[in-house]
Design brief:
Elements lengths: L1 H7 L5 H12 L2 H13 L3 H29 L3 H8 L4 H33 L7 H9 L4 H18 L2 H28 L4 H9 L8 H14 L6 H6 L8 H29 L9 H13 L3 H35 L3 H21 L14 H29 L1 H9 L9 H23 L6
Helix pairs in contact: 2-9, 2-13, 2-15, 3-11, 3-13, 4-5, 4-11, 4-13, 4-19, 5-6, 6-8, 6-15, 6-16, 6-17, 7-14, 8-9, 8-15, 8-16, 9-13, 9-15, 10-13, 11-19, 14-15, 15-16, 16-17, 17-18, 17-19
């Protein structure tokens, strides 16, 4: 029994939990997707809507998931099954989502490490689009860098909760914000940065269409690591002495701060050198390297930026692997070592296929998508929205608001000041909002 408890672990401090949970939330989506979505969809108007959705949907689902985890002390599937066996599949979908996402996230993490090495040796010379295209289409090199990223993730998870995830998150998260602020200062002080700031912050309500609001909903949902079992799993390592209402407020605040700062770091620099900001994922790996190449001391700031991106990626990837690891530790009584090694190897098989899908297997399509895009579609468009939607329904109508409130307040030990507000959100507002995102992503409704 003592060994099982040791393998499962527990947070050593409130700060450690907050840093790790914020690390799970702050990922690649904050650093490239939020800035260009804001710019494309009304600048400051989009930012206002985004913040409101964080309050009304993000906080609601995060608190719900942490509550389920802390109440049961179990993995995502085990938590639902303990409270209501009929809903065990919801937790299973979250674990499957984490497994699936990590299958391609490792590949992208490998790209980030490649760029760090490239900037250490002087930066990206020549056409950055050609450089990136040649790199990801290679059959071997991207897999090697993905392996480095996967090994780093596995090592931290193998070290356990307090000795691994908590220890490294308490270093990586403050470092991430320091690096982000350094890059922001450099970006906003560049000649011509004002145009980027205007593009980013000036409210243009004419661009705030229903589609833009749905995009904001989707970004909040996926940015906060909701629906994939991460918050349930991390919540399961919490002591009963923790005030989880406070935690569920701080983590979205940190995540949103990182997203907003990313906009200040990226868009002024992109405009200062005359590049196109609304180019999606290629903004990070094609546009920004070109910006750094044109910038004084660009190799230095490029290196800092991609180290920042690596920190964001690794703190998210360890939470994804921990979701899967916790399941096998709880359900099959595996040791942490066995669970980490077996799962890391199984996931890396998906990573190899994802990497090859960008090169030699690019023409191998399943339902019209290459393997990389297929994994992303299954996780982002199906498993995550279903997880978030069903959690609200479960708490609101099956487990019961009273049980959730008792857990959050520890039977009155902590004042749950937002009880009435949260009750309305979890029963009505959040499920409707997530349902709209889900139907839009599946193409059932169009905006």
């Amino acid at each position: 029994m003592e060994k099982e408890k040791k393998d499962r672990g527990q947070w050593a401090s409130s700060l450690g939990f907050i840093m790790a949970t914020a690390g799970s939330a702050i990922g690649l989506g904050n650093l490239w997707k939020f800035p260009y979505l804001a710019g494309q969809n009304g600048g400051g108007a989009f930012v206002i809507v985004y913040i409101l959705i964080v309050i009304f949907v993000g906080f609601t689902i995060m608190l719900g998931e942490i509550t389920l985890g802390r109440s049961t002390g179990l993995n995502a599937l085990g938590a639902y099954r303990k409270l209501n066996k009929k809903f065990a599949w919801v937790g299973g979908a979250g674990i499957l989502a984490a497994f699936t996402i990590l299958g391609y996230y490792n590949a992208v993490g490998g790209w980030v490490i490649k760029y760090i090495v490239q900037f250490v040796t002087g930066g990206v010379s020549g056409d950055s689009a050609v450089f990136f295209g040649e790199f990801i289409s290679s059959p071997i090199e991207p897999i090697i860098w993905a392996l480095v990223f996967a090994l780093a993730t596995a090592f931290i998870v193998w070290k356990g909760i307090s000795g691994g995830i908590e220890k490294y998150s308490k270093v990586l998260m403050p470092a991430l914000f320091v690096l982000l602020i350094v890059v922001v200062i450099r970006s906003v002080t560049l000649p011509g940065a004002g145009a980027g700031l205007e593009y980013y912050l000036k409210p243009d309500f004419s661009k705030l269409t229903p589609a833009a609001i749905v995009a904001a909903l989707g970004q909040v949902f996926f940015s906060l690591s909701l629906g994939m079992g991460c918050m349930i799993t991390y919540g399961s390592y919490l002591s009963k002495d923790e005030n989880i209402e406070k935690d569920a407020f701080i983590v979205p605040l940190m995540d949103t701060s990182a997203a907003l700062l990313a906009g200040f770091a990226i868009l002024p620099a992109v405009f200062a050198f005359g590049f196109e900001p609304g180019v999606g994922p290629s903004l990070m790996f094609i546009t920004l390297p070109s910006v750094f190449a044109a910038m004084p001391l660009g190799a230095v700031f490029g290196l800092l930026f991609f180290i920042l991106v690596l920190f964001a990626a690794i703190t998210s990837s360890i939470s994804l692997l921990e979701v899967c690891t916790a399941y096998f530790i709880d359900e099959f009584k595996w040791s942490r070592t066995k669970a980490t090694v077996v799962l890391a190897c199984a996931i890396f098989v998906l990573t190899i296929l994802s990497s090859l899908a960008m090169g030699p297997m690019a023409n191998v399509l399943i339902f019209g998508k290459n393997f990389f895009d297929l994994l992303d579609f299954i996780a982002s468009n199906i498993l995550l929205p279903v997880g978030g939607l069903m959690m609200c329904i479960f708490i609101g109508y099956f487990w019961g608001i009273d049980n959730a409130v008792a857990e959050i307040s520890q039977n009155g030990k902590y004042a749950f000041r937002l009880k009435g507000f949260w009750t309305v959100l979890v029963k009505y507002i959040a499920p409707i909002a997530v349902g709209i995102v889900f139907l839009n992503m599946l193409g059932i409704i169009k905006f």
